[in-house]
Amino acid sequence: MGMTMTQKILAAHAGLDSVVAGQLIEASLDLVLGNDITAPVAIDEMTKFNLDRVFSQEKIALVMDHFTPCRDIKAAQACQKVRNFAHRHGIKHFFDVGDMGIEHCLLPEKGIVKAGDCIIGADSHTCTYGALGAFSTGVGSTDMAAGMVTGKAWFKVPGAIKFTLTGEFAPNVSGKDLILHIIGMIGVDGALYQSMEFCGPGVANVSMENRLTITNMAIEAGAKNGIFPVDELTIAYMQKAGVENYTAYEADSDAIYDREIEIDLRQVKPTVAFPHLPENTHTVDSIAENIVIDQVVIGSCTNGWYSDLEAAANVLRGNKVAPNVRCIIFPGTQQIYLDCVRNGLMEVFINAGCAVSTPTCGPCLGGHSGCLAQGERAVATTNRNFVGRMGHTESEIYLASPYVAAKAAIAGYLGAGIL
Amino acid sequence: MKAKGIVHKYGDNVDTDVIIPARHLNTTDPNELAKHCMEDIDAAFVARVQSGDVMVAGKNFGCGSSREHAPIAIKASGISCVIAESFARIFYRNAINIGLPIVESAAAAKAIANGETVEVDFTKGVVSAGGCEYEIAPFPPFLQNIIQAGGLLPAIQNS
């Protein structure tokens, strides 16, 4: 019986010839990831059960990105705990303030994740690395702790939804619009316990950074993972990142899928998700009444890529952010930040009246550097618009692409007229 | 093993941001986390909850962030079991890994009302409330081993 791409990676890492959906397996891990929120819980658990040891110094990544540069004393204590752990165990991929970036932008850029890998991360957006043709999924701190100790994790082999892409995006439409469109179609639990496997001739027309945005939000449909096939774009991306050895897996031609959906990329329109769920989607051209906003946030693990910031800069160039709007931009990594400086994007942002932050998860989860007050509304290129996600429980988040967010920043509102 | 208590009922898609808001994630102390459990969706929960009470919810419970602080906060608040129509997959793993009992039962989750008394008999695989009984499917043996050991790390320690 044929296997999906995800099933093939899992079978190989479990030392099995084949697996079927629903099977419980134990798989070897190529990387275990944690951050300054989730790693401290894992470290405490390891200490509590006398398991203070790691299976590999090279296959663990610890990224201090959520509450950093530390927003308060408790956050500083948490980072100190992880820093001490990393030094004590000689963890190679430890990233602290100054060289850290937002984890899911940083690891692909540094070539730490690659095609064919089996990866767990104590962060739900770990599913991002599926864009490179890896099996990659979010877990909690205890799974992370167990992974750091044993180099293994248990999985229930997922079934899959197959998304066949054709055509190419219209101008100013991006991966963010596609993934919001999909979540609007299948719902926030539409892919629960399943893989989202993307394929078809349209894949070649989707850039690597757009693919990373799409797989990043697979979790917002409840999916275990999102995954793209390995093609010329993937290989070129990995080569630039310094990856030497990778394995390209392909789904079998007779693989069984739970559901198949075809999407013509030419039909995808600029799309936003209204509060308070990512499935509450509307195309921008259908927003009849203008929604006055207070803040725009451009960046995050979803849309902190260089091409995202470039799309925003192209809109902002020569314009000013509306007087009623605070616009905050946070690049994904130090390298992306540097590229923005070198290519004049920073000047565009500052002239337009934007605040530019060092890479951090900060505002996305209401952590710091951009929390919302009661009654305020934000347009954000982030991934979640749950109640209270960015601050006050009576604030609202509208999820959008960098292009739409920048247009809204200038207009001062979200509505059909901004396009 | 049994759980028995008063029901605190919620709807669909209860996310981990409302179970424990990110602003409180600068601590790993279960008792500190419990003080803020559910505060963005039900500010009175912490004052109302009694040790042994049961949480009942709709579909996709625990969606969103992977924060294990969410099941930790629920467990430390005194909740003895969460019954839902379905669970988001990371929350499901986390609950098993830390030893928070969970039950997936659409029939029970739909029928049981807020404030009712519910009893869960894990050995028999039955949820009882309001004179009705609902059968629950047992966990696969692999997961039962983790649950019986008291969580994933004790299970590793034992092996």
Give the topology.
The complex is a heterodimer of chains A (419) and B (159).
Chain A: H1 5-14, E1 24-28, E2 31-35, H2 39-48, E3 60-63, H3 73-89, E4 93-95, H4 103-109, E5 118-121, E6 135-138, H5 141-150, E7 152-156, E8 160-166, H6 175-186, E9 195-199, H7 208-216, E10 225-227, H8 232-240, E11 259-264, E12 271-273, E13 281-283, E14 291-292, E15 295-299, H9 300-303, H10 306-316, E16 326-330, H11 334-342, H12 345-352, E17 354-356, E18 377-380, E19 396-399, H13 402-411, E20 413-414
Parallel strand pairs in A: 2-3, 2-5, 3-4, 5-6, 8-9, 8-11, 9-10, 15-16, 15-18, 16-17, 18-19
Antiparallel strand pairs in A: 1-7, 12-13, 14-20
Helix pairs in contact in A: 2-5, 6-7, 10-12, 10-13
Chain B: E1 2-9, H1 16-19, H2 30-34, H3 45-48, E2 54-57, H4 69-76, E3 81-84, H5 89-98, E4 102-104, H6 106-111, E5 117-121, E6 126-129, E7 132-135, H7 141-149, H8 152-158
Parallel strand pairs in B: 1-2, 2-3, 3-4
Antiparallel strand pairs in B: 1-5, 5-6, 6-7
Helix pairs in contact in B: 7-8
